[in-house]
Amino acid sequence: MSSPAPVANPETNRRTANYQPSIWANSFIVSNIPDDEITLAHKEQQLEDLKEEVRRELIAAASNPSKQLKFIDAIQRLGVAYHFENEIEQALQSTYDNYHGIADINDDLYDLKHFFLQKKI
């Protein structure tokens, strides 16, 4: 004969954990709510403004090949180079055309390495 299952004592006192409130705001939950059209248009305009600023900086760095190569490297490391493929290609081609002599790049091994890695020569 099997013994009956123990019945839980309804008067068992359980301790509460007294957890502190979460430090995370409800913004993570609310972030899935779609933005209205005005907010979305504003975000898209901000994105385009930032991309244009990066393009201007890339062009402004053209007078200094070392600075330009470092800037291109930073763009690629950030993972946003796909937005600037044409500008990067033009900048690298210009640097190659103007400074294709190894001695022309200030004999800086760092610059030479980045230049040749960018061009994949």
From TrEMBL:
What lineage does UniProt assign to this protein's organism?
Eukaryota, Viridiplantae, Streptophyta, Embryophyta, Tracheophyta
Protein name per Swiss-Prot or TrEMBL: Terpene synthase N-terminal domain-containing protein
Q: Which SUPFAM superfamilies match?
A: Terpenoid cyclases/Protein prenyltransferases
Coiled-coil positions: 33-64
Task: Describe the location of the Terpene synthase N-terminal domain by residue ranges.
Answer: 24-112
Instruction: Report the GO molecular function annotations.
Output: terpene synthase activity
Transferase recorded as keyword? no
Which superkingdom? Eukaryota
This protein's UniProt keywords? Coiled coil
Under the heading InterPro entries, the entry gives:
Isoprenoid_synthase_dom_sf, Terpene_synth_N, Terpene_synth_N_sf, Terpene_synthase-like, Terpenoid_cyclase/PrenylTrfase
Task: Offer one example of a GO biological process linked to this entry.
Answer: terpenoid biosynthetic process
Cell division as UniProt keyword: no
